[in-house]
Amino acid sequence: MFDFLASIITIGGIYAIMALGLNIQAGYSGLLNFGHIVFAGVGAYSVGIVHMRGWSIFLGLPAGMAAAACLGWFMARLGKRLTADYWAIATLAVAEIIRTIAINEEWLTGGANGITMIPGFFESLQRPWNTVFFMLMVLCVVALVAFFSSRLGNGRFGRALRLMREQPELATCMGYNLQSLRTRAVVCSAVVTALAGGLYAHYFNYAGTEFMLAAETFVLWTMVMIGGMGRIAGVLLGVVLVQAVYATVPFVKDLLGFGSDMAGALRLGMIGLILLACLMWRREGLLPEKLREL
């Protein structure tokens, strides 16, 4: 039971980091990025590639964050010639292109099998201490990212992002460069999400394309929208609720005796119902953003 709870908390913490990264784009800036999960995939694969090259495992996370920053800059530059809706579709296309490359370039990414045997942190410790220390490390990272995101959102840059989101014409008149704001928001979001992807690879000792599916972006969007876009506490609440659904489904599966395929469908169905209920009765989320005077 302890291993199960530790796994749920650790995975929930990793998703919380990714959701906080998405919140910088969607919550603060109002940007629709449907390929957000690709940043986590870049972070995970970077950790795996560093391991394959025989380099220090401590280089994997910085390498992934740097690669995701470059990808985020490229994605943001696409928005220079595209409207918001078309940019959202373009981000999904970029994510699928990278996922396809990862499947086919076996020499670099291990192909469809992915990269295995990635060393984790604290592996030299005996069980359950290795699991406990990794879980505590992830929770500390969540706290640091939440603090960073809160400072960013409440600072001058965050207020500029909200002004761009609410009144872009006014932001332009006040001298803000909207393209620069978008680029910095996407890059910050990409770096945070890549950090989560790298932790994911170290935790599961694996990096593969399964983590880059569009459905994973849907899960992150659900977490952010249920809790409340633009508010740190809301995002974390959304993560807790969705992760609670994930933790409950295995027990329901054993109780009712249905198969794994049905369990996956039940999990998505329950999350969809929660999202639908929020959209109908709490459009701004369970903990809506508290706007302040700009």
Automatic annotation (TrEMBL):
It comes from the Bacteria. Pfam families: BPD_transp_2. Its main location: membrane. The keyword Transmembrane helix applies. One of its GO terms (cellular component) is plasma membrane. It is a multi-pass membrane protein. The chain crosses the membrane at residues 6-24, 31-49, 55-74, 86-103, 129-149, 185-205, 264-282. InterPro entries: ABC_transp_permease, LivM-like. It is found in: Cell membrane. GO terms for molecular function: branched-chain amino acid transmembrane transporter activity. Keywords: Cell membrane, Membrane, Transmembrane, Transmembrane helix. This is Branched-chain amino acid ABC transporter permease. It comes from Vandammella animalimorsus. The lineage of its organism: Bacteria, Pseudomonadati, Pseudomonadota, Betaproteobacteria, Burkholderiales.
